[in-house]
From TrEMBL:
Residues 1-20, 658-682 are annotated as: Disordered. It comes from the Bacteria. The lineage of its organism: Bacteria, Bacillati, Actinomycetota, Actinomycetes, Streptosporangiales. Residues 667-682 have a biased composition (Basic and acidic residues). It comes from Nocardiopsis kunsanensis. This is NB-ARC domain-containing protein. InterPro entries: P-loop_NTPase, TPR-like_helical_dom_sf.
Length: 682
C-alpha cells in the first residue's frame, strides 16, 4: 500500500512556514578589525528588541573603501544566534543609479532565497510581496541589502510578520524608510589609526616590522587614509616583494602624489607591469557593465592569453582583483573603489568605446551558446550550422551557472548596446538571457529584457525577431496569468508570421493562443488551435515538439469528454518523452505531465485502477522535481480514484494547501468547497 504522506511528498514542508530559507551570506574577511562603537550600538538595539517581533533596520552608509559591506556581514555573523533561521544577502546594484536593480526584480530574487519555487512566483508586485510576507511569517532571520541607491528599494523588500535584522548599506545616508520597529542610521567613517595599524599587523609578513625606524610604521598607517582597502593593498604589495621593506612601500606610495585615497590606488596601479596595466585598463572598460567580470571577456579585448593571465595574476597579488569561487571559475571581481579608478584609466573615449563593444560581443555570443544548451532550440543569435551533438549533464549545469552569474552583466550589455544602436546584440543577448530568467522565475527582469529586445527588433526592421519576441512576451504574460495581454501581443505576432511563412514562429503563436483558450475554458477553440499547431510542427521533423502538441490537445479533449482520443494521443507522447533521443535524455518532467493527464482520461473512462497507477507515478515525478502546482492538479484527480473517504479528504486537503501556498487562493477555495462531493477536477 502506498502511504498518503509519501504521495503528497513531505506534507510538513508543503506550507510556507516549512520552507527553507537559503542562507547565502559571504564569509567575513579575516582582516576585519574594530568598528566597535558601531557594532556596540547595533548589539544594544538587538538586545533591547530581543523579545519583540518586527524588523530592526540598521542603515550603514559611508564612502567607497571604508568597508560598509564588510561591517554588515560582520554584524550578521556575530548576531546570527539571535536570528537563527537564515542569513540572506542581496546586492541592490548601487551605487550607480543607472545599474540599480528595480524593486520587483529584487523581490523575484528574494523569493527564490526564501524557498519559493519558480512556478510559484506571481506576476504582479503586490502578489510577489504577499508571497514574501507569507514565506517569512514567523521566521527570525538576518537580511543584508548591499549597495542600496534609495529608500524605495528598501521599502519594497521590508519583511512583515517576522523578526528580522535588516542591514542596509549605501554610499549616501538614506532618508527614513518607515514601517519598521526601529530604524538606526550609522555613518561608517574612516578607521582610526589604531585600527588601521591592527589590520597591517595582522596581514603584514611577520618580519616586516623588524628594525624599522621610529615613526616609519606610523607614516604607512597615515598613507592608508583610514581605509581598510588601502591597508590590504599595502599588505599585498609587501607580500609579493620579499626583498622590499616598509620604507620602499612608503616611498612607492608617496611618489604617487596627491592626498586622496584614489591617489594611493593610483600609486599601486603605476607600479604594475605593462601586461597588468593593459588588463587593468580593460577592467576599466568593463566597469560600464559591472565589476563582476568573465576573465575570457578580457581576453576577447586583449588577445594574448598568456599575457592576460600574467596580468591578472599580478592584479590578484596586489589585491586589485580576486577570483570568484574556485580556481575553475571564469569569474573575477574588483571592489567599487578600484573599479572607479580603473574606469578613469580605461583610455581615450574612442578606445574605451571600442573595447566596450568587443566586451558586449563576447557576452552576446557566450550567452547564446549557454542558452542554446538549456533550450536545444535555435536562437536568433545562434551561429548557423553550429555543433548539435550530444550534450552532457555537466555542460548544461555549467551553462546554467554561467547565466546565473552573468544575468546582471547581460542586462547591462542590452542597455549599453541599445544606447549604441547595436540592435543585433540587443536582440541576441536579450533572448538568450531570458531563457535562464524564465527558468529561474525572475519574471520582471525577463519581461523588461523581452520588451527591450522587441524594441530593438522594430528598430532593426527584423520581422522574424519581432515575431519571436512577441511570442516570448506572450508566454511571459501567460505565465503571470495576464491572458488579455498575452492574446494581444501574440495576435500581432501571428499577423506578421503568416505572410512571412515562418513555420516555427507560426506554430509558437498558435500554441500560445491555444493555451490562452484552454486556460479560459474554451476547449473547443483550444483543440482547433492546437491541432493546427501539430500540423505545422510536422514540417519541423521534431518528435518532441509533436509530443508537446499532443499533450496540450489531449488536455482539452479530456475536458470535452473525448477521453478515448486523448488516451491514444497521450500514449504516443509518452513513448516519445520516455525514450532518449540522439541528442537528448528522457524528458522526466513531460513524462510526469503525460501520466497525470493519462490518469485523468482513464478516470473518466471508468478505469480507476489503471488511473491510480498513472497518477501515482506522475505524483512521484512532481514530488522529486518539487513542482507543487502539478502535484495539486494530480492530487485532485487521484482523490476521485479512491473509495476511502478519509484518504480522499487527505488528497484534497493537500491539494488545497499547495494552491494556497502558491498564492492561488481561488483554486484553494474551490477544492475546499468540493471536499463534500466526488469527482475529478474538471
Amino acid at each position: 500500500m502506498v502511504q498518503v504522506a509519501n504521495l503528497h511528498g513531505d506534507l510538513s514542508m508543503s506550507g510556507t512556514r516549512g520552507r527553507t530559507l537559503h542562507s547565502n551570506l559571504a564569509p567575513v574577511d579575516r582582516l576585519f578589525t574594530d568598528r566597535e562603537s558601531s557594532r556596540a550600538r547595533v548589539r544594544r538595539l538587538v538586545h533591547e528588541r530581543s523579545a519583540e517581533d518586527g524588523t530592526t533596520l540598521v542603515k550603514l552608509h559611508g564612502a567607497p573603501g571604508v568597508g560598509t559591506s564588510e561591517l554588515a556581514r560582520q554584524l550578521a555573523t556575530e548576531l546570527a544566534d539571535h536570528y537563527p533561521d537564515a542569513g540572506l544577502e542581496i546586492d541592490l546594484g548601487g551605487p550607480d543609479p543607472a545599474r540599480a536593480v528595480p524593486g520587483e526584480a529584487l523581490l523575484d530574487r528574494l523569493l527564490l532565497l526564501c524557498g519559493a519555487r519558480t512556478e510559484e512566483i506571481p506576476g504582479t508586485p503586490a502578489a510577489k510581496r504577499d508571497l514574501f510576507l507569507r514565506l517569512t511569517a514567523g521566521r527570525t532571520f538576518v537580511l543584508v541589502l548591499d549597495n542600496a541607491v534609495g529608500a524605495g528599494q528598501v521599502r519594497a523588500l521590508l519583511p512583515g510578520r517576522s523578526r528580522c535584522l535588516l542591514l542596509v548599506t549605501s554610499l549616501e545616508a538614506l532618508p527614513r524608510v518607515g514601517n519598521v520597529g526601529k530604524e538606526l542610521p550609522v555613518h561608517v567613517g574612516e578607521l582610526e589609526d589604531e585600527a588601521v595599524a591592527e589590520i597591517l599587523r595582522k596581514g603584514l609578513p611577520e618580519d616586516a616590522l623588524e628594525g624599522v625606524l621610529e615613526g616609519t610604521f606610523d607614516r604607512l598607517v597615515g598613507l592608508c587614509h583610514g581605509l581598510p582597502v588601502l591597508a590590504r593593498l599595502a599588505i599585498a604589495y609587501l607580500d609579493q616583494r620579499p626583498f622590499s621593506g616598509l620604507e620602499d612601500l612608503i616611498t612607492h606610495l608617496e611618489e604617487g602624489g596627491g592626498e586622496h585615497p584614489r591617489d594611493r590606488i593610483a600609486a599601486h596601479v603605476a607600479a604594475l607591469t605593462e601586461p597588468a596595466g593593459r588588463v587593468f585598463r580593460a577592467v576599466g572598460a568593463h566597469a560600464a557593465l559591472g565589476t563582476t567580470i568573465d576573465l575570457r571577456s578580457l581576453q576577447s579585448v586583449l588577445g594574448d592569453p598568456a599575457g592576460m593571465r600574467e596580468g591578472l595574476n599580478e592584479l590578484a597579488t596586489h589585491s586589485l582583483a580576486r577570483r570568484v569561487g574556485s580556481r575553475r571559475s571564469v569569474w573575477l571581481t574588483v571592489g567599487s573603489l578600484v573599479g572607479s579608478v580603473a574606469e578613469e584609466r580605461a583610455g581615450a573615449e574612442h578606445v574605451r568605446r571600442e573595447r566596450l563593444g568587443a566586451l558586449c560581443s563576447f557576452y552576446r555570443d557566450a550567452a547564446v551558446r549557454a542558452a542554446s544548451l538549456l533550450t536545444r532550440r535555435p536562437l536568433l543569435g545562434a551561429v548557423p550550422d553550429a555543433d548539435t551533438g550530444p550534450v552532457g549533464a555537466d555542460e548544461v549545469v555549467e551553462a546554467r551557472n554561467w547565466l546565473h552569474t552573468a544575468a546582471d552583466v547581460l542586462a547591462a550589455v542590452v542597455g549599453e548596446s541599445g544606447a549604441a544602436g547595436d540592435h543585433r546584440t540587443v536582440i541576441a543577448t536579450a533572448e538568450a538571457a531570458t531563457v535562464y530568467l524564465a527558468e529561474a522565475g525572475r519574471t520582471s527582469e525577463r519581461t523588461a529584457l523581452l520588451r527591450q529586445g522587441h524594441e530593438a527588433a522594430v528598430a532593426a526592421g527584423d520581422t522574424r525577431a519581432r515575431i519571436r519576441f512577441g511570442n516570448l512576451l506572450g508566454v511571459a504574460h501567460l505565465d503571470r496569468g495576464a491572458f488579455d495581454e498575452a492574446e494581444a501581443v501574440v495576435a500581432h505576432s501571428l499577423e506578421l508570421a503568416e505572410p512571412a511563412g515562418d513555420t516555427m514562429e507560426l506554430a509558437a503563436s498558435h500554441e500560445v493562443l491555444g493555451i490562452v483558450a484552454q486556460r479560459r475554458g474554451d476547449h473547443t477553440r483550444a483543440v482547433e488551435r492546437l491541432s493546427h499547431v501539430r500540423q505545422l510542427k510536422e514540417e519541423l521533423h521534431r518528435p518532441q515538439a509533436l509530443a508537446v502538441a499532443d499533450l496540450l490537445i489531449a488536455r482539452s479533449q479530456i475536458a470535452l469528454g473525448r477521453c478515448a482520443e486523448a488516451r491514444e494521443r497521450l500514449e504516443g507522447a509518452l513513448s516519445v518523452f520516455a525514450e532518449p533521443g540522439q541528442h537528448r535524455a528522457p524528458d522526466a518532467v513531460n513524462v510526469a505531465k503525460v501520466r497525470s493527464e493519462l490518469g485523468r482520461a482513464l478516470c473518466v473512462l471508468g478505469e480507476t485502477e489503471a488511473a491510480g497507477v498513472e497518477l501515482r507515478e506522475a505524483l512521484k515525478g512532481f514530488v522529486e522535481r518539487d513542482m507543487p502546482l502539478q502535484r495539486a492538479h494530480t492530487l485532485e484527480t487521484l482523490a476521485a480514484t479512491v473509495r476511502d473517504a478519509q484518504v480522499r479528504d487527505e488528497h484534497l486537503t493537500a491539494a488545497a494547501g499547495l494552491y494556497r501556498d502558491a498564492g492561488n487562493v481561488s483554486e484553494a477555495e474551490r477544492v475546499e468547497s468540493e471536499r463534500e462531493g466526488p469527482g475529478p477536477r474538471p
